[in-house]
């Protein structure tokens, strides 16, 4: 079936979904399953799709992320990886990374500490960069620095995907972020790092 028919069919199915969280789940599944179709849809209907994959919907999706989880997207680097961050970065299958959007989930869109649920922000932001700037998706890397969370609700949630510990702070936190930056400079020397929230 021609690509334009695939886009039209996908848009028709998306519009049948009654709520924005359902649409978000549909679109993230599409991105995982057929990235080319996802970007054709996003580029051709950016005014309609952008609010579904980024603000305002992504904030609600991040709050529910562990419960909506289907497939990992991006790289999670945990505080327990201290001393081995470069090795973790070396595991990423694509080596020509040009843009990294990274968060530790502490202040997502004014919603507070969402811990690893905040990965939706780097994923959504990079999708917009690809659609609007035309860069290839394989040169983008969403990163979650999992340093724990102080959100009691997530610490008690059995579906929460992150470290079940209080947020790393002080010198230990800054040392971990420094190790991440040094690792990126070594593994992806041409990458721009954007810290999100």
Give a quick precis of the structure.
Helix content is 51%, strand content 10%. By secondary structure, it is of the alpha/beta class.
Give an account of the 3D structure:
There is one protein chain. 51% of the residues lie in helices and 10% in strands. It contains 10 helices and 4 strands. It has helices at 3-16, 20-33, 35-44, 46-53, 57-63, 65-68, 85-90, 120-133, 152-156, 170-187; strands at 75-78, 99-103, 140-146, 192-195. It has a 4-stranded parallel sheet with strand order 1-3-2-4. Helix 2 (20-33) crosses helix 3 and helix 3 (35-44) packs across helix 4 (46-53). The mean pLDDT is 95.
Task: Chart the SSEs and their pairings.
Layout: H1 3-16, H2 20-33, H3 35-44, H4 46-53, H5 57-63, H6 65-68, E1 75-78, H7 85-90, E2 99-103, H8 120-133, E3 140-146, H9 152-156, H10 170-187, E4 192-195
Helix pairs in contact: 1-3, 2-3, 3-4, 3-8
Can you give keywords for this protein?
197 residues; alpha/beta; four-stranded parallel β-sheet; 10 helices; 4 strands; globular
What is the residue-mean pLDDT, rounded to a whole number?
95
Put simply, the count of helices is 10
Sequence of strands across the biggest β-sheet: 1-3-2-4
Give me the Rg, rounded: 17 Å
Low-pLDDT stretches are none
Structural category is: alpha/beta
What does the overall shape look like? globular
Which percent bin holds the helix content? 40-55%
What does the largest sheet look like? 4 strands, parallel
Give the terminus-to-terminus CA distance.
41 Å
Give a count of the beta strands, DSSP E runs of length 2 or more.
Answer: 4
Instruction: Write down the secondary-structure element order.
Output: HHHHHHEHEHEHHE
Q: Which range does the strand content fall in?
A: 5-15%
């Amino acid at each position: 079936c021609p690509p334009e028919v695939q886009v039209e069919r996908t848009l028709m199915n998306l519009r049948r979904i009654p709520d924005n969280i359902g649409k978000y789940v549909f679109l993230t599944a599409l991105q995982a399953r057929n990235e080319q179709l996802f970007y054709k849809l996003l580029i051709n209907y950016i005014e309609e799709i952008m609010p579904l994959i980024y603000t305002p919907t992504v904030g609600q999706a991040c709050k529910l992320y562990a419960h909506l989880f289907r497939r990992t997207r991006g790289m999670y680097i945990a505080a327990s990886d201290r001393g081995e961050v470069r090795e973790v970065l070396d595991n990423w299958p694509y080596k020509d990374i040009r843009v990294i959007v990274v968060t530790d989930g502490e202040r997502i869109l004014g919603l507070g500490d969402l811990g690893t649920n905040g990965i939706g922000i780097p994923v959504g932001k990079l999708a917009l960069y690809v659609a609007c700037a035309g860069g290839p998706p394989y040169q983008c890397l969403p990163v979650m620095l999992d340093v724990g969370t102080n959100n009691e609700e997530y610490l008690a949630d059995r579906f929460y995907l992150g470290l079940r510990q209080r947020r790393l702070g002080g010198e230990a936190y800054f040392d971990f972020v420094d190790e991440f930056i040094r690792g990126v400079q070594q593994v992806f020397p041409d990458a721009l790092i954007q810290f999100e929230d």
